[in-house]
Amino acid sequence: MSQQEYQIVQSPAGFAPRGPSVLYDPALPILHFPGGVAAVTRRNQRLRRAQILATIRRLLVENGFEAVTVRRIAEASGHAVQTIYNLVGPRDEAIVQAISEYTRYVGRTASPRADDSHAVIEIIDRWLQSVEASPEFCRQVSQIFFSRSRAIFYDFRDRELKGMHKLLQQQQRSGAIRPEINVRDLAEQLVLLASGLCVEWSDRPFPLEQLRRRLYSGYSHLLASALTPNSQIREVLHRHEANV
Predict the structure, then answer these.
(1) Which of 2, 5, 80, 238 keeps 20 to 30 A from 182, CA to CA?
(2) What's the distance, CA 89 to chain centroid?
(3) Residue 16 pLDDT > 50
(4) Distance CA 238, CA 233 (A)
(5) Residues 157 and 232 in one domain
């Protein structure tokens, strides 16, 4: 794996990062190679798309949300304006894709299997590590909520909700979550908690350790009644909450 890019490869268990260490830098391209002839023939297109999305994330960090335009993306990435539209769509859609791609990558570094009983906690850990590694990226994403283009924030959050819902469904099937729990509602509560805390943190900054403590405390309360008595998540959550 080059130090200038992330490489994610398809495996039977899902997506997992290749390489001995996990880096959290939103400005690096994230390359998806599902395998097969089609992936090889479209490699250049995938590379261009990954570079464009990484450029968008870099511009968010360096210049802020309002400075991200299709023309600026084209100039910074070295691609034509029409290429930007062809590969990632108009400005708002492109920003949503760039943010969502990175958060999916962070989540997939946590566990190769979504039905792992520790997956929820590992995802929280990795997400917090990514915030600590690039707090300005998280701040800029959260600040979109206060802009006239807040639909970008809601679109991104809806994608996060779908991902969390899918994860909790797998957790429920694996026996970690009680069968009678409405995991759709639980996913919404978890995502709203995380996004709400990030928006507050971006608007009136407080220490990241406080963000970590409030997130674990909130997740502990939301998951407490949903977990099965023998769920390993319960013990791990309590241990994490005590440590912070």
Answers:
(1) 238
(2) 20
(3) no
(4) 9
(5) yes
Same-domain status, 127 and 54: no
Residue in the structure block whose two tokens are 């479209």: 42
Q: What pLDDT does residue 142 have?
A: 96
228 in the same domain as 167: yes
Rounded Cα distance, 229 and 10, in Å: 34
Do 62 and 69 form a contact (C-beta atoms < 8 A)?
no
Is residue 115 located within the same domain as residue 232?
yes
Whether the pLDDT of residue 153 is over 60: the answer is: yes
Instruction: Please provide the DSSP assignment of 112-123 as one string.
Output: S-TT-TTHHHHH
Query: Is the pLDDT higher at 236 or at 197?
Result: 197
Domain region containing 128? 111-244
- CATH of residue 61's domain is 1.10.10.60
Residue-level pLDDT at 130 = 92
Best mean pLDDT range from 22-31, 33-42, 108-117 = 22-31
Tokens read off for 19: 């390489």
Residues 130-145 have pLDDT tens digits of 999 999 999 999 999 9
**Residue whose token pair is 């469904």:** 169
Alpha helices in the chain (DSSP H): 37-41, 43-63, 70-77, 81-88, 91-108, 119-133, 135-143, 151-173, 183-203, 208-224, 232-243
* Helix/strand/coil for 3: coil
Tell me, what amino acid is at 146? Answer: F
Number of domains forming the structure of the chain:
2
